[in-house]
Structures are given as C-alpha cells and as structure tokens.
Amino acid sequence: MTKPVIIAVDAMGGDNSPNKVIAGISEFLKRNKNVFFRIFGKSKIIENEISKFSIKKDFFEIINCEEIVENNDTPLVAAKKKNTSMWQAINDVKEKNSNVIISAGNTGALFVISKLNMKMIENISKPALAALWPNKIDMNIVLDLGANVECDEKNFEDFALMGSALHKALFPLDNSKVALLNIGSEEIKGHETIKKAYQSMEHKKNDLYEFCGYIEGNHIMDGNVNVIVTDGFTGNVALKTAEGTANFISIELKKALSTGIVAKISSLLNISNLKQFKDRLDPRLYNGAILLGLESPVIKSHGSTDFIGFANSLDVCVKTVDGELIDKIKKNITI
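The structure assignment produced for this chain is given below.
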C-alpha cells in the first residue's frame, strides 16, 4: 500500500459543522482507507460526532482549537485569530505535518490565511481559484473563479498551466485542452489583455496541454476543451449564472412533472432518465474548489453543502496529492 494521504481538516467551518464534516469523513472512508485525518476544532464536540459514526482511531487525530473563524468575519479579522481551527489546519500543512488542507468555512479568510502561511510557487504571481464544471463528455476545470478581479497576460498563461496540471492530477488518462473564455471565437475579439495572452499561448509549445484558442460561454459544456481560463470577475459571474440556471431548471422540471395526472404518469415512466438528469445537475458531485499557486494544495468545500458534498471534496484532496499537482506545476512553470 502506498503512503497514506494526510489531510488537515478545519472541522468547524461551514453550515452544520462539525456534524457534516465528520459524517463526510465517515462516508469517504467507505471507499478509501489509505488516508489519515488531522482534525482541527473543538475536541469535545468533534469526539461526540465521531462516536456517532464509529470511526476507527487508526484514521484520525484531533487537535483542539477553541477559536473558530466566523462566517461574517472579514479576512483581516480572521487573520488576527491565530488559534482558530482554520489557521491551525493551514499551518499544519505549512509545517509539513499534512499534505493538503480542506475547509468549508469563510472563503475570503481561507485564502488570506493560506497566503499568509504558505509561499507562492516560484514564478507564479497570483493564485487562482479552480473548480470542476461538467460538460457533455466528462468534466472541465474552470479558473479563475474569484481570486483575482484583474489579470494580465502572464496570469492567464499561469492559470492555463495550473489548470492543466490540476486536470492531469484529477484525470490522468485525459489530454488537457485549454481555451480562453471570450466574447467570440475570432482572434480579433476581446480586450487587449486576452488578445496578448492568445498570441503568446498560440506560439508557445507546452508538454502539459494543447492550446485551443477562444471559447464562448455558450460552448463551455460542449466538451471540446476541458480547461477554461478567465479572470476572477468573469469566472465568478459565469459560475453563479450556471449554478442559478441549473437550480432553476431542476425546480421548474420538478414542478412541471408533478402537475396533472399525465405529467405524473410520464415522470413515473421516465423515472430512471429523470434520476440521471437530476444527478447530473447535483452540485455535490462537483464540490471542492482548489486554490492554485501556493506551495501546497488548499481545498475549499462549499459552505452549504451536506456530508455527501464534503465527502466528494475529500476525493479532490486525495487526487491532488496522489496526482502530484504541485510538482507538475513547478516542473512546467516558466518565467
């Protein structure tokens, strides 16, 4: 058996924590036992939750932290509280006691504290938030989703490299195909920064990915590319729009199929197809955003997800470590 992945867990962050965090760990251990959890938070509460799931002591250690980062804390306020479960979990990775850190807590605080504790990878000037996004064939990596409002062409090139490294770590058998999100597919479209990035990336050879030019928002899910690069402002707007649209479709479809006898009979006859459709839109399947650019991987679980979503984000933790994400970035980054 290979060496277990050691995950530092901020158990107190997000809605319904630490219950969902411990339940997620229990769910995850049903399918992967080559892992060890260093769990940070209020030990008495965590021990009580663990007793509900009978998790063996071989798989975890609890590090008591009486302070927590509140959801309404500003990043500056959170960064001043150095005895919180979030700060201590991040510091644990910095000290090389753990391989990766995960939190469902305050996003801004997580990013600021991570940047304060960890060094940036050499020659990368800005971190980027990346996440999974489904397409018709399999899965996209999309970045940046909110870490940087303004970017230059070098940032776009770095994001392409980091996103491709993440794609390779998560899907090692697939070829990474990169596109820049733009308002059109023609070379003349877009602002000057993205056009400069296009010109530079088009002429650079890279062993990690194939550059495929521009992609428009309505083609993100076509599956022709699998790493989509943009700035944090545009990426965050696109993500929230897609999440809202998926939620709207799910609600309206459920409403339509529960109104009238004909609709109800139709839904019963197509129950298998409808379940597949519903599962495809389930955001819990794609939980686990990654802050790329730091010396160690930082995973952000959605604060409102349940234990299933948290368990899926633990899969992302393990794959980024086993897939040697950081080494892939360092090996391919250029000045």
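Interim note for the steering committee: The mean pLDDT is 88. The first helix runs from residue 19 to 28.
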